[in-house]
Design brief:
There is one protein chain. The chain is α+β, with helices and mostly antiparallel strands and about 110 residues long. The protein is built from three helices and six strands, in the order ααββαββββ. The protein has helices at about 5-15, 20-25, 40-55, and strands spanning about 25-35, 35-40, 60-70, 70-80, 85-95, 100-105. Strands 2-1-6-5-4-3 form a six-stranded mixed β-sheet.
């Protein structure tokens, strides 16, 4: 499966627990929508990721990639300490200037 370098960095940094590397894949004004909450900017995204990782201890395994308009959809198997684990989630990425400008995570 071939992923855009910024998206590949997101999943690789997540797997390695590399918060700074993961956050650097986002543009400074990027947003993340997860579980009904929006996180704006790298500082908020880093805090969201660290808190989510600590709470759920998730591991992500990308399964397939497709394109939906100007978004890149990655279906990934999420395993961790949450109800319904493991679950297949969809990560919708919007890119700008080779960085992630928006990410929406859903079922």
């Amino acid at each position: 499966m071939e992923l855009h370098p910024s998206i590949e960095t997101y999943f690789d940094a997540d797997a390695r627990g590399a918060r700074d590397r993961l956050v650097a894949a986002f543009s400074p004004e990027a947003t993340v929508l997860d579980e009904g909450h929006t996180y704006s900017g790298r500082t908020a995204i880093g805090a969201w990721w660290a808190e989510t990782k600590a709470r759920y201890r998730t591991t992500l395994q990308p399964l397939e990639v497709s394109h939906a308009g100007d978004a890149t959809a990655v279906r990934a198997l999420a395993t961790g300490d949450f109800p319904g684990s493991p679950a297949t989630l969809t990560f919708l990425f919007w890119l700008q200037d080779n960085q992630i400008k928006a990410l929406e995570i859903g079922a």
